[in-house]
Specification:
It is built from 27 helices and 32 strands. It is α+β, with helices and mostly antiparallel strands and about 900 residues long. α9 (about 570-600) crosses α14 (about 660-675). The structure holds (3S)-3,7-diaminoheptanoic acid and zinc ion.
Length: about 900
Amino acid sequence: PTTVLRKDYTVPAFLVDTVDMGFDLDPAATRIATRITMRRNPASGSKEIVLFGEELELVQLRLNGKQLKPGQYQLEAGKLRIASAPAKVVLEIETLTSPEKNTSLMGLYVSNGNFFTQCEAEGFRKITYFPDRPDVMAKYTVMLRADKKKYPVLLSNGNLIEEGDLADGRHYAKWEDPFKKPSYLFALVAGNLVCQEQKYTLKSGREVLLQVWVEDGNLDKTQHAMDSLINSIRWDEERFGLELDLDRFMIVAVGDFNMGAMENKGLNIFNTKYVLANPRIATDVDYANIEAVVGHEYFHNWTGNRVTCRDWFQLSLKEGLTVFRDQEFSADMVGTDSGRAVKRIDDVRVLRQAQFPEDAGPMAHSVRPDSYVEINNFYTVTIYEKGAEVVRMYQTLFGRDGFRKGMDLYFERHDGQAVECDDFRAAMVDANGRDLSQFERWYSQAGTPRVRVQSKYDSAKKTYELTLTQTCAPTPGQAKKLPFHIPVAVGLLDSKGKDMPLRLQADGKGKANTETTRVLELTKAEQTFRFVEVAEQPVPSILRNFSAPVVLDVEYSDAELAFLLAHDSDPFNRWEAGQRLATRSLLVLTAAVQDASQAGHVVALQDVLNNAASNSGALGEAFGLILNDAALDAAFRELALTLPSETLLAEQTEVIDPQAIHTSRQYLRGKLGQALKDDLLAAYHANQTPGAYSPDAEASGKRALKNVALSYLIQADDEAAHALAQQQYDNANNMTDRLAALVALTNSSAPGKAAALEKFYEDFAQEALVIDKWFALQATAYTADVAAIRALSEHPAFTLKNPNRARSLIFSFCSGNPVNFHAVDGSGYEFWADQVIALNGVNPQVAARLARSLDRWRKYAPALQEKMRAALQRVAAAPDLSKDVLEVIGKALA
Ligand code: B3K
Ligand code: ZN
């Protein structure tokens, strides 16, 4: 397959002014008549029209009223070319597609009998021949025609301008989008749907119509999405001065969807997972995710739609920025400082767990990549989450007001345009009057920088020096890295644990020294920052609030970490200190387990672990203090008490040994569970949330803390814990508690566990999203081996065709159950290869995601590596591989 290069970008030869489309919707064969008015682009020297089209039947093609015959145009490799076209062109194109046969869920497809589209990134070309690239923006008018009984609702972008009946029981609806847009934002929905709607008055006084469309029977699950939409609208007005530009804004939920949701202009299409919620079916995490995704798609209306991307290499321009905006939105919705910190910790956990490994693996790419084979493979945690960190750094450097000024300038300059990441940086820089040319490396260089910290206190001079050095390992295609511009937020704690006022030597005389957090700007490979008037030897708190997406190497003693965990005023670093302390124990334990197994002779594992667990007493004490500190939010305590995941630990070892990691982590969990048993039980009972369910931050924090306590208690696997979990399961009035209890039971030897699993299935058989949870919790159970997963894949409710279902079982196992996936006999990898090959034929995009579960195969012991390589090679040799899968597997094996 061909590689697309960023440097090969050329402006489009023709610009499109208007697009008029007529759809005769039919699941077997939908006829699409498209009329495009185009004109030569003065910025291009070319007279050639290039249209993209895939899996289409071309029925008719007319240029300026005259039918074109084969020979007057070239049709080859997904491109339709018309050489030497006149300066002004009206193209009329008729195409046929078969939505019911479309299992890729790109372009026009059928889900549960209704029609939906997904056009980003390159799905519009599966609907008609078109210059399907984001820098071609046009105004669309869309006429939908369909059987009225089967498809009573007909939706597209913008405003409904006409509707009525046709002969033969058909009807029509005509939609007009007043804003020009790239083709990837086109959408239509047709089917049997119902909506919750309400009028809402914007700050300006203008009234808009808001709708949430779902299948019949789901109207009791739309309130939270509607509330989230209203909150998003209000937030964007207040925080960024951005108003909804349409009179009507629709959200539609669909059960078959490749991603989370899609920001089509005025007609957002959502995976049901990010719309439907009520206390019976949705967890606290689901509620939070719905708020975040509704916000994310809504915020795209400005960051993505009004200002869009010049080409797909600029994807992070809209995605990184919009993730940053949704993160800030979620944080502001909680409102408290500690709530903001909890959100920040959650986001950083995702970054470390998923993006850092990506940045260290074969698919590593920069935030603005230089090449791709299949653009759908680049909707990654690097583009999204690391991209958001890059945007966040502007705010860290310029402050909230400075950031807002940059945003204002960005819209002032680029509204209605398709632009580059560089344009965003330029707006930020110009609005704040600073030279940030080195900052560009965050966009061009892949890899996670490592920052090493050394410190020196001079008690005579009262100075404290921090020497920061940065390095970044090579990534594919980038052997040498230049220094990044890294904002490092620092605080210094005195011996009582209080923040010291900070004064840098570079400040000179006269500046008031009341600030207790300073942002140091590390721009060189090595730099020393000298603080003056430092009264006593401090304990440094570095990279506060995770001020840059880097790995921080700093040598703390256990005592210093415990001190920071107890006192740091920066909640992020407080949490971080606990995680460092726990990681330290876990890595010692893991090494001991490995040594014991390599020693070859039979050693009692328990003895090995007990001997190695020397600092777990200190950890238990530190955790106990947090657990019992009622001044801390429950949500924060839950995060602090959660040990780093097996995946995160794996990344911190030289050679990954999933079994040893699992053994040690489980051991430490058991040890902490025993040591803190009384406190955990007390916390369990103190954090009940009686009364009506509410997903607010305080209540969900309490449930999280209570349920982490339960998970520690169940580690003992005794009757008392079984009874507690069973009782919680039976009495739960919400899915958060019910699911947590079922997970606890499933990971225990409780006698009632099979019955509970069965009852859960029966009770929720009609709720697809809950059945997904049922598959996922079994797929991630410590006891679930490959055979169990294969058996589940034969369950009548399982299908690879539905992405949510495929993810719930297959992905949950392959990336969420390392100890069983990496079974020493390689059976997990064989299962993986079978599924990638099967999915490739159904849905290449989803298949390519699954293909990535072996990204890190070179980090495992040789015996496992060999088995992984064999599985990768088997997939590579499979017939008819999509370019999606080929790219991922090819890079893994390279
Ligand atoms: N922009 C969409 C992503 C669509 C990806 C298709 N392969 C979702 C989002 O980021 O909001
Ligand atoms: Zn997005």
